């Protein structure tokens, strides 16, 4: 039986934000951005909601029909540059004393490949009780099939060893080297050429 997937719209904003919050509460990078448990519990949901707003405006959010998993995608043109100022605005709006909100945007922008149009998987989240059921693979597969048909590469930053292994199975490879967050965990910038180019 396949996984039913649809494109989210504004009516799904709260559902997607809650899903991302629960999926990333224990993520190593979220723990680095919000090292205090109380701050993570109160501010992390607002950061996830801000990400949802950005992608609803500029990209596409795929969600499983049962609301257990979602993926946030941006189509990045070849001449695009990362919006580091956007993370400064997020920091100011959400938690002005937390420099890591802005720092994560700067650091990921520095490793994001430029010069080729690609699909950027900003985030993918699966409800904690549903992880390991293949929902993330199904969400990725629908976009990666289109990438293969259209000859478009894809890019992401894996935030854990577990997610890195999933992405490698789907054809992603480490771009250069891991990104070492200051006094924190690693992230893995990963690129996937379309199947016609592999």
Helical stretch tally:
7
Overall average residue pLDDT: 92
What is the tally of beta strands? 8
Give me the Rg, rounded.
Answer: 16 Å
Helix content: 40-55%
C-alpha geometry: globular
Structural class: alpha+beta
Unreliable spans are none
Largest sheet report: 8 strands, mixed
CA distance, first residue to last residue = 29 Å
Order of helices and strands: EHHHEEHHEHEHEEE
**How large is the share of residues in beta strands?**
15-25%
Question: Quaternary status of these chains?
Answer: single chain
Task: Note down, in words, how this protein is organized.
There is one protein chain. Strand 2 and strand 3 (69-76) form a beta hairpin. The chain starts with a strand and ends in a 6-residue tail after the last strand. Helix 1 (13-24) packs across helix 3 and helix 4 (84-94) runs antiparallel to helix 5 (99-111). The chain is globular. The model has no long low-confidence stretch (mean pLDDT 92). Strands 1, 2, 3, 4, 5, 6, 7 and 8 form an 8-stranded mixed beta sheet that branches. 45% of the residues lie in helices and 21% in strands. By secondary structure, it is an alpha+beta fold. The longest helix has 22 residues, at 37-58.
């Amino acid at each position: 039986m396949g996984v039913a997937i649809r494109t989210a719209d504004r009516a799904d904003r709260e559902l997607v934000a809650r899903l991302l919050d629960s999926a990333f509460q224990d993520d190593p990078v979220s723990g680095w951005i919000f090292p205090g448990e109380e701050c993570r519990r109160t501010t992390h949901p607002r950061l996830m909601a801000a990400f949802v707003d950005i992608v609803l405006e500029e990209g596409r959010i795929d969600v499983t029909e049962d609301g257990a998993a979602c993926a946030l995608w941006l189509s990045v043109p070849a001449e695009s540059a990362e919006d580091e100022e956007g993370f400064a605005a997020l920091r100011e709006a959400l938690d002005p004393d937390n420099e890591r909100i802005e720092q994560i945007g700067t650091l990921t922008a520095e490793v994001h490949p430029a010069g080729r149009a690609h699909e950027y998987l900003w985030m993918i989240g699966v409800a904690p009780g549903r992880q390991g059921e293949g929902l993330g693979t199904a969400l990725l597969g629908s976009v990666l099939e289109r990438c293969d048909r259209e000859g478009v590469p894809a890019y992401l930053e894996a935030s854990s060893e577990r997610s890195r292994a999933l992405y490698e199975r789907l054809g992603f490879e480490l771009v250069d080297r891991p990104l070492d967050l200051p006094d924190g965990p690693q992230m893995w910038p990963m690129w996937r050429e379309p199947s016609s180019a592999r």
